[in-house]
Structures are given as C-alpha cells and as structure tokens.
Write a structure and sequence with these properties.
two-stranded antiparallel ribbon; mainly alpha
Length: 326
C-alpha cells in the first residue's frame, strides 16, 4: 500500500493553503512487514539464547517409571512413619512441634490445618479404592487386621531391607514383612498407570481440583525429586530457587534470601529452625530498609561516607566550587 507523503501546507490569509513543495511516496505496508519480521527474528533469537528450558513437570507416574525402587522405598517409609511428611508436624500432623524461634513456636500455634496421615492418605487409602486387584485387597485386609505395633514392625523391616538392597525389591532378603511388599507393589502399579496422580488430588478443592498438597508431599518424601533438582543445579547449596536450570543465574535478586542458608549457624545449630529464623530476619531487614530515612544516624551514613563523590567525580572535578555539597 503506497501513500504520498506531503508536508504541512503554508498558511494563506490565516487558512491552510495547498502545498506546492516536493513530495515523495513511501509504502506503509512494506515498512510494517519489515518491522514485524525484524522484531520476530530478534525475539526468537533472544528467546533461544536467554529463555528458561522447558522441563516437563514431575508426576507420580513419571517418578514411578524413572525410579521404581525409590518409589517403593518411599511407600514403605510412609507405612513405617519415617518419611519427612509423616514426622513434619503442623500444619499436617502432630508428630512434632515444628520449627520454633526460642519460645515462639509458630507451627505449633498455627495447629494442624491440613490433616495428612501419610500411611493412610498415600498408601492405604488409594489401595482401598483399587477394587480390581485381589492380591492388593487381600494384603490390605491383612494390614488392617494387624495391630499398630505389628504394622510398624512389618513396614520398618521392609524399609530397612530395601535400603540394604539399594532400593531394589527384587534383591530384598527374605524376612517377615507381612503384606507390605504386596501393598507397595500394587501402589507402584497404580502410579505407573497414572491413577495415583488423580487419586491423591483433593477432590474437595473446588470444581477444578487444584489442591495438589498430598501428591506433592508424597513426591517430596522420595529421593527422586531431590536428585532431579540436584541434576539441574536447583538445590539450596547450589543457589537454586529459580526458574532457570543449568548455569543460568535465574532470579539473582533472591540471593539475599538464599545467602543465609549457606552460612553458619543456619547450616548447623539453627538448621532445624532455619526457615522461620531467616524469614524473621528478612522481615527485619526489609523494615530497616523501609524506615531507613527516618532512623537518625543510619540515614546520615551516605553523607559521612561520600561515595557519591566517586560516582559523580566528573561533576565535582569540572563544576565550580559551590562551598557545600549538594
């Protein structure tokens, strides 16, 4: 589409007159296409160089297929009550008081707001809804008929045996494990088929079922998620906490928060309560930054340490002496 470029018409008697000067043609459509192509190519090139890798999400199904031994060992740990979620404390259960900061016990005070029974929610419950597996049904009946002490003995023995066999169920030494091997094998089958992913989602979380608390807790109890995070340089000691993987820096502004997790005493004596202590520390530092202009002494540091003269050295070298600093 070609148009004719004209210049403003000269005034004649207070009214615009007809332009008599030179004109030239230009193609608006051509300019638009060129600009679109250039911007598109530039966006594609920059995306290829600097965008985040598109890593697929980890599900219980992908975990069970990639590391079936770790999945079975985690399921046995859930039954034994030895996993992180089983012993976490509030807001999931009362197994511990949770993190505290001196006399301040935030988790305990908040209480159990999202009840999670790892053994029943992650293993027994899903198996009870598996109606087409006679072996799983028989194993579940045997488990329910046993005392809590017997259940604990079976699960702990099998978890220990799996650890000794490098989480390979085929290499587990004979022992008194009760129905635990059959239960974990059946649960592995549910995970492989993809049923377990949907089964553990809280169906009371609304029409779209967006509460993934239980599948995420189960996944985090295993070693596969941590290993995957380490392979992508996303663990805490690798300064993870970012969208990007590999050697990309990610959200560099998070360094101030993740920094504290890398140094003592947060890596030692305060390690169990590091989250709540660092969270409180960051709040205090943020408040200090917000109210810095109102704190006598601190607000005068920039004037006492004239770093601004280094930054604006050209101004102070070339400008005439004014008798006082701006």
């Amino acid at each position: 589409m070609a148009t004719t470029e004209t210049r403003p018409q000269p005034a004649t008697g207070g009214k615009p007159g007809k332009w008599r000067g030179p004109t030239r043609e230009y193609d608006l459509l051509k300019e638009f296409v060129i600009a679109l192509v250039v911007v598109a190519l530039l966006a594609a090139a920059l995306s290829a160089l600097f965008s985040s890798p598109d890593e697929p999400g980890i599900t219980l199904q992908s975990w069970s297929k990639a590391a079936p031994g770790d999945f079975v060992a985690t399921a046995a740990g859930e039954l034994a009550g030895t996993t992180t979620s089983a012993s976490y404390g509030p807001p999931y259960n009362s197994a511990s008081e949770g993190m505290s900061m001196g006399p301040i016990k935030l988790q305990k005070w908040a209480g159990v707001r999202i009840p999670v029974d790892s053994a029943n929610d992650f293993v027994v419950g899903p198996l009870s809804r598996l109606t087409n597996d006679p072996q799983a049904t028989a194993a579940l009946s045997q488990w329910r008929a046993a005392t809590p002490e017997q259940q604990q003995a079976w699960a702990s023995a099998y978890a220990d045996a799996l650890e000794a066999a490098d989480n390979d169920p085929a290499k587990v030494a004979p022992g008194d494990y009760g129905p635990v091997p059959a239960m974990t094998t059946a649960l592995l089958g549910m995970a492989n088929s993809g049923i377990l992913d949907s089964d553990l989602v809280d169906t009371g979380s609304g029409f779209f079922h967006t509460d993934y608390t239980r599948p995420l807790l189960f996944l985090a109890d295993g070693g596969y998620l941590e290993e995957t995070a380490g392979n992508h340089h996303l663990q805490g000691e690798q300064w993870g906490m970012m969208n990007e993987t590999g050697n990309y820096p990610g959200q560099a502004w998070l360094w101030l928060y993740t920094f504290w997790y890398q140094i003592p005493p947060f890596t030692g004596a305060w390690g169990d309560n590091a989250d709540v202590i660092i969270w409180t520390l960051m709040i205090l530092l943020s408040l200090l930054l917000v109210f810095l202009p109102f704190i006598p002494g601190l607000r005068s540091i920039p004037r006492w340490v004239p770093l601004y003269r280094v930054i604006w050295r050209d101004y102070y070298r070339n400008a005439p002496h004014r008798g006082s600093s701006p």
